[in-house]
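Q&A FORM
Asked by: J.P.
Topic: structure of Alpha/beta hydrolase

PROVIDED:
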Amino acid sequence: MRKTIKNLALAAAVGLSGAAQSADEPMPTIVLVHGAFAGSSSWNGVIGELEKDRFHVIAAANPLRGVASDGAAVSAVVKSLTGPVILVGHSYGGAVITEAANGNANVKALVYVSAFAPETGETSLGLTEKFLGSTLGDTLAPPVMLSNGVTDLYIEQSKFPQQFAADVPTEQARLMAVTQRPVAQAALTEASGVAAWKAVPSYWIYGTADRNIPPAAMEFMAHRAKSRATVAIDGASHVVMISHPKQVASLIRDAASAK
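REPLIED BY: S.T.
REPLY: Here is the structure written out as tokens.
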């Protein structure tokens, strides 16, 4: 049954954290995939919450080079695991888990955290431009041209806190700006492969004040994917996993305990 939750009070009321795993079922491994302008440490708060419940958690390194190659890198991690897997993707990482789930029958669910879930042939940039509200383009630093012809994108450090992490303490957001990882421009315009969310159950959480991906775009993608649970956190920024780790972990638990 699909449920849409628009605020934290209601989320708590319906018990979004999910039921405990039954004794005869193996605990799924949670594979977390970061997005552009971030790194694996962006999941630290969520990891702490999940480890309280003894989940095995892997924060996979996302190369941020291209949908197909990044998806293959995460898929290799999944193939190395036994038992069920929950794939969790933030931002561009959503496009990556959509790719990585294909061919891996042990992927039990996809959790999209302020993320893209492209249809076959769609691009992250195309989905952003389909709806009003993104201000990312105005905050990008001059592109960095690499010797292999790849163009890397960064967010200007001075604009990063308001653009990317407006509900994160300022000093923390400034550190995030300095340590941000670039995304290859081509990754944002690369067409997605088979849309795994058509066959794998999906779950969604995002902030209503996201300035990178328009909230209307994420609502559209969640509805299109027939999301089993959609959580929209009022006033949350693009990095909802940093500002609201308990709520993100709760949704992941929900996905892990679903039948």
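FOLLOW-UP: The radius of gyration is 17 Å.
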